[in-house]
Amino acid sequence: MSAIDDLAAELAKLPGIGKKTAMRLTYHLLKQPSDRSLRLAQALEVLAERVHPCPRCHNLTEQDLCAICSDPRRDASVICAVEEASDIWAIERSGEYRGVYHVLGGRLSPLDGVSASDLTVNHLVERVAAGEVREVIMATNPSVEGEATALLVQQALGAAPVRVSRIARGLPMGGDLEYADGVTIAQALVARRDMVQDSR
Amino acid sequence: MSAIDDLAAELAKLPGIGKKTAMRLTYHLLKQPSDRSLRLAQALEVLAERVHPCPRCHNLTEQDLCAICSDPRRDASVICAVEEASDIWAIERSGEYRGVYHVLGGRLSPLDGVSASDLTVNHLVERVAAGEVREVIMATNPSVEGEATALLVQQALGAAPVRVSRIARGLPMGGDLEYADGVTIAQALVARRDMVQDSR
User: Fold this and answer.
1) Assembly ipTM
2) For residue B46, what are the contacts with CB-CB under 8 A and spacing of at least 6?
């Protein structure tokens, strides 16, 4: 397999990039000075070698603590729980949120074999039990699995003296937080509502 | 700048990849085992370091001669002249062509400062003068610049005892060969026509 086919095959494994696009990107890189490809290669290597989950919130970082957890201006008494680290980027883009985060590492999905023990729910309960947290905002996706995950977290936090809220559904049901625009996310944060225990 | 932002910035420099898509691709890679990123990095490095133009046809290759020039089953008496090496991939995809290629390295474009001397036209004339070539198929893009380039090559080959043909315009005027489907390219090759010297 040639270097050209090889790179195109690797690029085609990325989501949303088909065989034709991969080949086009490869030839695009070939037309650039070779340090363009090398810079991209280096960025990938740094990513693979240095990035790891933040021990406090499971956000991805190169530091001991992630940039948000280590920022003294962030309000550590409000934790926004999200499914994936990429959701943090989406919420930060809205510019509306000044608290910290907790990455659950996915959503409840029995069909995909994801159960409560695969998520970082227990760690979130520990963070809340350690005190100083007054609110947990559930920002899981507005899908069936996301709602189930929010309920799971709410019940796990049941005994703790903490407000548990859910971001308002500004996103259409079945939508994906990662693809939402900043304004929608900002509105959803402002209009968040308490999770009442109506499911019992 | 963090490793995540850094990779996203590099990815966003690729054509057709915006800031959001770049961030999504980066987080996708972060969810994979890290050897996925490293394999992509390695493919980029190999591309940057080993790929160079074929000395015979200017196709891109890692070998002394490109795979097509060194294939004894290809008919070296028919040369298909294209603008870019990526066009070869598009034509090969059609499965219709058994000759060899010549990459001109662009198209005539006075506005972009591309003149005849920036193209490999003289080298093509030498290849034809060396004998054994009976036909040159002009497969430059069906644009004003592509047509001008085809005419330039035809005139440069004027004295040589060689048929000069032009791929049929199956592609819409202003279209781009690289984006065409294989069937259209195959039809355009079959229906190629001689270039008559009607421009004189």
Assistant:
1) 0.70
2) A3, A6, A7, B62
